[in-house]
């Protein structure tokens, strides 16, 4: 049993099932991201936890107690919205103090709490301003402080960074994670941005069409995707069409190349399967290791600074190859033939989809 | 200047004359109480008349009560309709324009039938009851303007997100309405309030049929009993109405400069 348990949650709006059999156990102080494409039900799950929607079936338990019957204001769960949703008529201080005032704290006790929160988000000097006098990033920090001030039992964040521009998005997510760690608050974070989810989460739940496809630490989600949806949604992926040559021996054929995968395959000789390879799994050039060699023709070379991105053709199929820039190794010329190397363990076998 | 512009100016001047001439004529007439010279005698007579201040004060107090009742009824209704019952918006909008369609005389007869001394709720049995009934009648009369103003005000910000934010911070409905919703529709409420004020100050039918000493009936009574004073009174009433309109304009301007300030700071904002 975790701190927050979502048990077989279901939600239907009329005939459309938006969340299906969703189970998740979140430990105290854990930071979990729900990652998935738009419309997959992330917000709906968050809103059920907050109490704005009631589940069609299943239970929501907080510290062991079922909270499904409680009204939103009785749950003591903090929420941060994509649109900030700051009260326009209140100053930054009043916004942050709102929850404390509601809780009935006397004024002299509210002020130091607000000061502490302002320091936490680094806006000590802006307490007297109104929301419209702040930038988007500052507004979202105030929204975070407002949600945290009453010391909620869980913090919910619904795409809090989506309305901000790229630079602030990255710096603010780091800051949010640092604050979350400092306070040790159990957090459920919703995003459709995989980099965001992978970079700041203890664990990531990849969602598709209302279901959890995989729940694991970011490293595992990226390197050992459980389903082809996860493999495709998280990170860039090359897919190569192949035909099984020997299922038990793990040999497949890509055009006229035989490739040993080193693992047993489901299916039989002659079945076509899809192999997936991350762009950064390939190695090429002098000194490259790897037991599998694929001859490739380079069609396009993009020098991006730290990364060199190559479009290459392997057995008639176009793939993308990423390698780090090295001063002693200039990018190969377009039209050249090269040997791409990789390890069998870098190849994912996708189930037919 | 092109012929088109000339025509436009001609139309504008004709329109100004059409509206201004009667007013100028009335004002000029109101100054003629003393034979052979212009004077403010008619105004002095009007202001001297204790009935003038009495009825004006009565109507002013009534308009304040009407505005408060209107706000208490309309703000929660419009809020609730926007938040939870969007489907019923057309129905509610239809109901709120009914007072424009149904003649006041019909409405007031309806009230008198429903609340007369031999009814289930004999409001007309006492003066306080009648005053209350009159005020409620004025709430009805101002409903189309009050509702539209406040509903527009509610549409100007993200009602749902603010409500949910307040709820997640533990706030109940009363606090949400009082601390979050009302302050953010205050300008809209003000404009509705000024229109209500103008309506209540000039209204005749309700007040006359309920036999209360309001400003509207007083104006009509003066009109049929005096010569120059009605013109002076009309000018005063006109000034009051324009004063209310001016305040409304001021509130609207303040709110729009507030908005442009918002916009400015958005374009200028730094990280
Ligand atoms: N109140 C509602 N009534 C009907 N359908 C809804 C409602 N809220 C959400 N949906 C639908 O549920 C699906 C999931 O929505 P949502 O949880 O917002 O997805 P996400 O946050 O992952 O983008 C969407 O198809 C959306 O149209
Ligand atoms: Mg969403």
Structure notes:
The complex is a heterodimer of chains A (353) and B (271). In chain A, 24% of the residues lie in helices and 34% in strands. Chain A contains 8 helices and 19 strands. Chain A has helices at 42-50, 92-102, 107-120, 136-148, 166-183, 194-200, 218-223, 228-233, and strands at residues 4-13, 16-26, 31-35, 57-62, 65-66, 77-80, 154-158, 187-191, 203-208, 211-216, 238-246, 251-254, 257-260, 272-277, 292-303, 307-314, 317-324, 337-342, 348-350. Chain A has a 6-stranded mixed β-sheet with strand order 6-7-8-3-9-10, with helices on both faces. In chain A, helix 3 (107-120) crosses helix 4 (136-148). Chain A is elongated. The model of chain A has no long low-confidence stretch (mean pLDDT 91). Chain B has helices at 3-30, 41-48, 50-83, 89-101, 104-115, 127-155, 159-168, 173-184, 186-202, 205-209, 215-225, 229-268. Chain B has one domain: MetI-like (MetI-like fold), CATH 1.10.3720.10. Chain B has 271 residues and is mainly α. Chain B has 12 helices and no strands. The radius of gyration of chain B is 23 Å and the shape is globular. Chain B is 81% helix and 0% strand. At the A-B interface, strand 6, helix 2 and helix 4 of A face helix 7, helix 8 and helix 12 of B. The structure holds adenosine-5'-diphosphate and magnesium ion. The site of adenosine-5'-diphosphate has 10 residues of chain A, from helix 1.
Keywords summarizing the entry:
heterodimer; A: 353 residues; alpha+beta; 5-stranded antiparallel sheet; 8 helices; 24% helix; B: mainly alpha; MetI-like fold; 81% helix; disordered C terminus; binds adenosine-5'-diphosphate; binds magnesium ion
């Amino acid at each position: 049993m975790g701190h927050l348990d979502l048990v077989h949650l279901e939600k239907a709006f009329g005939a459309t099932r938006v969340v299906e059999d969703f189970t998740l156990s979140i430990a105290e102080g854990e930071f979990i991201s729900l990652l998935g494409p738009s419309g997959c039900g992330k917000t709906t799950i968050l809103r059920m936890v907050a109490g704005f929607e009631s589940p069609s079936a299943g239970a929501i338990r907080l510290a062991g107690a079922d909270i499904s019957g409680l009204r939103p204001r009785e749950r003591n769960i903090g929420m941060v919205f994509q649109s900030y949703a700051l009260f326009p008529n209140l100053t930054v201080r009043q916004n942050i103090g709102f929850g404390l005032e509601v809780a009935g704290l006397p004024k002299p006790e509210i002020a130091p709490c607000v000061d502490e929160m302002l320091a936490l988000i680094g806006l000590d000097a802006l307490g007297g301003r109104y929301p419209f006098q702040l930038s988007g990033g500052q507004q979202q920090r105030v929204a975070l402080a407002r949600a945290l001030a009453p010391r909620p039992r869980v913090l919910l964040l619904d795409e809090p960074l989506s309305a901000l521009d790229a630079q602030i998005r990255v710096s603010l997510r780091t800051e949010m994670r640092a604050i979350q760690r400092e306070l040790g608050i159990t957090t459920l974070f919703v995003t459709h941005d995989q980099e965001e989810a992978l970079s700041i989460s203890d664990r990531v739940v990849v969602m598709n069409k209302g279901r959890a496809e995989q729940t694991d630490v970011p490293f595992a989600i990226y390197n050992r995707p459980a389903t082809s949806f996860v493999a495709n949604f998280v990170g860039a992926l090359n897919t190569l069409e192949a035909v099984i040559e020997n299922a038990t021996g793990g040999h497949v054929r890509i055009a006229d190349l035989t490739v040993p995968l080193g693992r047993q395959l489901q299916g039989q000789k002659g079945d076509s399967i899809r192999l997936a390879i991350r762009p950064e799994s390939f190695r090429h050039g002098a000194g490259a290791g790897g037991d599998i060699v694929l001859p490739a023709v380079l069609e396009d070379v993009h020098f991006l600074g730290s990364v060199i991105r190559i479009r290459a053709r392997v057995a008639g199929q176009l793939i993308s190859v990423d390698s780090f820039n090295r001063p002693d190794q200039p990018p190969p010329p377009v039209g050249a033939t090269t040997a791409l190397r990789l390890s069998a363990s870098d190849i994912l076998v996708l189930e037919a989809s | 200047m092109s012929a088109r512009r000339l025509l436009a100016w001609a139309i504008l001047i004709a329109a100004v004359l059409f509206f201004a001439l009667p007013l100028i004529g009335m004002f000029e007439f109101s100054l003629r109480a003393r034979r052979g010279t212009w004077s403010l005698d008619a105004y002095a007579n009007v202001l001297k008349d204790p009935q003038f201040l009495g009825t004006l004060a009565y109507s002013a107090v009534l308009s304040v009560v009407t505005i408060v009742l209107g706000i208490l009824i309309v703000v929660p209704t419009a809020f609730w309709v926007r938040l939870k019952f969007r489907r019923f918006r057309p129905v509610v909008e239809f109901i709120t324009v009914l007072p424009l369609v149904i003649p006041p005389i019909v409405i007031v007869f309806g009230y008198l039938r429903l609340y007369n001394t031999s009814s289930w709720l004999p409001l007309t049995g006492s003066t306080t009851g009648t005053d209350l009934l009159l005020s409620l009648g004025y709430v009805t009369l101002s409903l189309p303007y009050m509702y539209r103003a406040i509903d527009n005000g509610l549409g100007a910000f993200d009602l749902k997100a603010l409500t949910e934010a307040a709820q997640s911070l533990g706030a109940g409905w009363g606090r949400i309405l009082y601390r979050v919703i009302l302050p953010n529709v205050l300008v809209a409420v003000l404009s509705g309030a000024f229109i209500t004020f103008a309506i209540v100050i000039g209204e005749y039918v309700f007040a006359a049929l309920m036999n209360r000493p309001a400003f509207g009936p007083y104006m009509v009574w003066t009109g049929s009993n005096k010569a120059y004073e009605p013109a002076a009174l009309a000018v005063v009433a006109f000034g009051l109405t324009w004063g209310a309109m001016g305040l409304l304009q001021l509130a609207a301007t303040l709110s729009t400069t507030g908005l442009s300030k918002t916009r400015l700071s958005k374009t200028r904002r730094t990280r």
